[in-house]
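Appendix B. Chain record.
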Amino acid sequence: MPLLPRFVVLFDGGCPLCRRTVRVLRRLDWFGRLSFEDVTDDAVRARIAPGLTREAALAEMWVVDAAGVRTPGFDGYLALSSGLPILWIPRWIGLIPPVTWLGRRIYRAVAARRARQGGCSDEVCAPGSVRPL
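C-alpha coordinates predicted for this chain:
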Protein backbone atom coordinates (compact mmCIF):
# COMPACT_ATOMS: atom_id res chain seq x y z
CA MET A 1 0.00 0.00 0.00
CA PRO A 2 1.44 3.39 -0.97
CA LEU A 3 2.30 5.91 1.71
CA LEU A 4 0.33 8.64 -0.06
CA PRO A 5 -3.18 7.89 -1.35
CA ARG A 6 -4.34 8.62 -4.89
CA PHE A 7 -7.42 10.67 -5.74
CA VAL A 8 -9.42 11.72 -8.76
CA VAL A 9 -10.69 15.29 -8.51
CA LEU A 10 -13.92 15.90 -10.40
CA PHE A 11 -14.24 19.58 -11.23
CA ASP A 12 -16.43 21.87 -13.34
CA GLY A 13 -14.42 22.50 -16.51
CA GLY A 14 -16.74 25.40 -17.39
CA CYS A 15 -15.79 27.33 -14.26
CA PRO A 16 -12.69 29.56 -14.41
CA LEU A 17 -12.34 29.52 -10.61
CA CYS A 18 -12.44 25.70 -10.67
CA ARG A 19 -9.82 25.52 -13.43
CA ARG A 20 -7.58 27.89 -11.47
CA THR A 21 -7.98 25.68 -8.38
CA VAL A 22 -6.94 22.66 -10.45
CA ARG A 23 -3.80 24.50 -11.61
CA VAL A 24 -2.88 25.25 -7.98
CA LEU A 25 -3.51 21.66 -6.90
CA ARG A 26 -1.34 20.36 -9.78
CA ARG A 27 1.54 22.54 -8.55
CA LEU A 28 1.11 21.20 -5.01
CA ASP A 29 0.95 17.56 -6.18
CA TRP A 30 4.70 16.90 -5.98
CA PHE A 31 4.30 13.10 -6.06
CA GLY A 32 1.65 12.75 -8.77
CA ARG A 33 -1.10 11.48 -6.45
CA LEU A 34 -3.96 13.46 -8.05
CA SER A 35 -5.68 13.19 -11.38
CA PHE A 36 -8.29 15.63 -12.63
CA GLU A 37 -11.42 15.05 -14.67
CA ASP A 38 -13.99 17.47 -16.05
CA VAL A 39 -17.30 16.47 -14.49
CA THR A 40 -19.26 18.12 -17.31
CA ASP A 41 -18.32 15.14 -19.50
CA ASP A 42 -21.17 12.67 -18.90
CA ALA A 43 -19.04 9.66 -19.93
CA VAL A 44 -16.26 10.59 -17.50
CA ARG A 45 -18.76 11.11 -14.68
CA ALA A 46 -20.44 7.75 -15.39
CA ARG A 47 -17.07 5.95 -15.41
CA ILE A 48 -15.58 7.52 -12.29
CA ALA A 49 -18.67 8.27 -10.18
CA PRO A 50 -21.61 6.20 -11.42
CA GLY A 51 -24.92 7.59 -10.23
CA LEU A 52 -23.57 11.08 -9.52
CA THR A 53 -26.05 13.43 -11.14
CA ARG A 54 -24.95 16.34 -13.31
CA GLU A 55 -26.68 18.75 -10.92
CA ALA A 56 -24.86 17.39 -7.86
CA ALA A 57 -21.58 17.20 -9.76
CA LEU A 58 -21.76 20.85 -10.78
CA ALA A 59 -22.77 22.06 -7.31
CA GLU A 60 -19.34 21.34 -5.80
CA MET A 61 -16.01 19.66 -6.43
CA TRP A 62 -15.91 15.91 -5.78
CA VAL A 63 -12.90 13.85 -4.72
CA VAL A 64 -12.91 10.12 -5.40
CA ASP A 65 -10.43 7.86 -3.61
CA ALA A 66 -8.95 4.57 -4.84
CA ALA A 67 -11.82 2.62 -3.22
CA GLY A 68 -14.39 4.72 -5.10
CA VAL A 69 -15.51 6.68 -2.04
CA ARG A 70 -16.80 10.12 -3.12
CA THR A 71 -16.33 13.17 -0.93
CA PRO A 72 -17.70 16.58 -1.94
CA GLY A 73 -16.73 20.17 -1.22
CA PHE A 74 -14.67 21.20 1.79
CA ASP A 75 -14.51 17.60 3.02
CA GLY A 76 -13.12 16.66 -0.40
CA TYR A 77 -10.29 19.14 0.13
CA LEU A 78 -9.61 17.59 3.52
CA ALA A 79 -9.54 14.12 1.95
CA LEU A 80 -7.20 15.01 -0.91
CA SER A 81 -4.88 16.92 1.42
CA SER A 82 -3.82 13.57 2.88
CA GLY A 83 -2.09 12.93 -0.48
CA LEU A 84 -0.34 16.31 -0.56
CA PRO A 85 2.38 16.63 2.10
CA ILE A 86 2.43 20.42 1.85
CA LEU A 87 -1.21 20.45 3.02
CA TRP A 88 -0.85 18.14 6.02
CA ILE A 89 -0.75 20.94 8.61
CA PRO A 90 -3.71 22.81 7.06
CA ARG A 91 -5.52 19.44 6.95
CA TRP A 92 -5.12 18.95 10.70
CA ILE A 93 -6.32 22.48 11.32
CA GLY A 94 -9.28 21.86 8.99
CA LEU A 95 -10.25 18.77 10.98
CA ILE A 96 -10.87 20.80 14.15
CA PRO A 97 -14.71 20.83 14.48
CA PRO A 98 -15.27 24.63 14.50
CA VAL A 99 -12.88 25.03 11.56
CA THR A 100 -14.62 22.19 9.67
CA TRP A 101 -18.01 23.79 10.28
CA LEU A 102 -16.80 27.20 9.11
CA GLY A 103 -14.90 25.70 6.15
CA ARG A 104 -18.04 23.92 4.92
CA ARG A 105 -20.09 27.11 5.17
CA ILE A 106 -17.50 29.19 3.33
CA TYR A 107 -17.04 26.52 0.65
CA ARG A 108 -20.80 26.30 0.01
CA ALA A 109 -21.11 30.11 -0.18
CA VAL A 110 -18.25 30.42 -2.70
CA ALA A 111 -19.47 27.44 -4.77
CA ALA A 112 -22.99 28.85 -4.94
CA ARG A 113 -21.74 32.23 -6.19
CA ARG A 114 -19.05 31.15 -8.64
CA ALA A 115 -19.38 32.11 -12.28
CA ARG A 116 -19.31 29.69 -15.19
CA GLN A 117 -18.10 30.15 -18.81
CA GLY A 118 -17.58 33.73 -19.77
CA GLY A 119 -18.09 35.22 -16.32
CA CYS A 120 -14.41 35.96 -15.89
CA SER A 121 -11.06 35.00 -17.32
CA ASP A 122 -8.89 32.29 -15.81
CA GLU A 123 -6.41 34.95 -14.72
CA VAL A 124 -8.92 37.19 -12.98
CA CYS A 125 -11.86 35.35 -11.46
CA ALA A 126 -13.65 36.31 -8.31
CA PRO A 127 -16.64 34.52 -6.81
CA GLY A 128 -19.74 36.64 -7.21
CA SER A 129 -18.27 38.81 -9.97
CA VAL A 130 -21.04 37.61 -12.25
CA ARG A 131 -24.37 36.00 -11.35
CA PRO A 132 -24.07 32.19 -11.32
CA LEU A 133 -26.00 30.13 -13.87
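Further analysis of this model is presented in Appendix C.
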